[in-house]
From TrEMBL:
This is Pyridoxamine 5'-phosphate oxidase family protein. InterPro entries: F420H2_bilvrd_red/Heme_oxyg, Pyridox_Oxase_N, Split_barrel_FMN-bd. Residues 22-134 form the Pyridoxamine 5'-phosphate oxidase N-terminal domain. Keywords: Oxidoreductase. It holds the Pfam family PNPOx_N. The keyword Ribonucleoprotein does not apply. The keyword Oxidoreductase applies.
Length: 153
């Protein structure tokens, strides 16, 4: 594999870059699985609140159905060179039960407030337990930057 001059970042820099991307990116790929129906992957808008990822989707979506059966999920930012993968457990909040601070921040970021829509929506919160981040082959070693919910400095 050609590295094209990539120089590996120190752990603190990887964490800083990862947190910056979580704060500014718009989309995340959400991977869920159902014990009978199998895997499902979908892109959703997301908000990072400093501790967790918040997403919102229709109350009857496959994502919500899967999370209710199997809360373990994987999330990935949509860049195959500057990879950020998160793994954790999801928790569902019906749109009328979501903490106001999270819903207000979500609405502020996207200009869309599911709480005032006609249909039913569910906010999905994922607190990461593991985060992996790397840019190219030189950063494969040391790609785990969070383990058991603790950032590795």
């Amino acid at each position: 594999m050609e590295t094209t001059g990539i120089v590996g970042r120190e752990p603190a820099e990887r964490i800083r870059d990862t947190l910056a991307r979580l704060a500014t990116e718009r989309d995340v790929w959400v991977s869920t699985a159902h014990p009978v129906h199998g895997p499902h992957q979908v892109p959703l808008w997301f908000l990072w609140d400093g501790q967790a990822v918040w997403m919102c989707t229709g109350a009857t979506s496959v994502t919500v159905r899967n999370v209710r059966e199997e809360p373990r999920v994987r999330l990935s930012l949509p860049d195959t060179f500057d990879v950020v993968l998160l793994q954790g457990e999801a928790r569902c909040f019906p749109d009328q039960e979501v903490p106001a601070e999270a819903a207000d921040a979500f609405a502020g970021k996207f200009g869309w407030d599911p709480r005032v829509e006609e249909g039913s929506f569910v906010y999905v919160r994922v607190v990461p337990r593991t985060v992996r981040a790397w840019r190219g082959e030189p950063e494969l070693r040391g790609r785990v930057v969070m383990r058991d919910g603790v950032w590795l400095r």
